[in-house]
Specification:
The protein is mostly helical. Helix content is about 50%, strand content about 10%. The protein has one domain. The chain is globular and about 45 Å long. It starts with a helix and ends with a helix.
Length: about 110
């Protein structure tokens, strides 16, 4: 994706503002629950969330280095954490929706 940012820099018809939107991996993980995350790769979800945080930091730096100054993550999962209905659905899947809070803090 960083290549697309560089490509846009070379094309003045795109204007001065460089924008990139992408859905986040956390969206897939929350909606799919524990079943969406390989237990072989991540037997402990703490490792998944720690890697996710590292990946976000690395991606943001790569986009910045490529010239992107407006990066929007469409991470709708955080809104789910405000919904008692969605939290209940997660618990019914056997997930602990609040477990990610410890690992994602910088």
């Amino acid at each position: 994706m960083a290549e697309k940012v560089k490509c846009h820099q070379e094309r003045p018809e795109f204007g001065r503002r460089r924008e990139l939107y992408r859905p986040t991996d956390a969206c897939c993980a929350f909606r799919g629950g524990r079943k969406a995350i390989s237990k072989d790769v991540y037997p402990d979800l703490e490792e998944f969330y720690a890697d996710l945080g590292k990946t976000y930091r690395k991606a943001v730096k790569a986009f910045y280095d490529a010239g992107c100054r407006y990066l929007q993550f469409d991470d709708t999962v955080w809104a789910y954490l405000c919904s008692q209905e969605e939290l209940q659905k997660a618990r019914e899947r056997g997930d602990n929706p609040m477990a990610c809070r410890k690992s994602t803090r910088a």
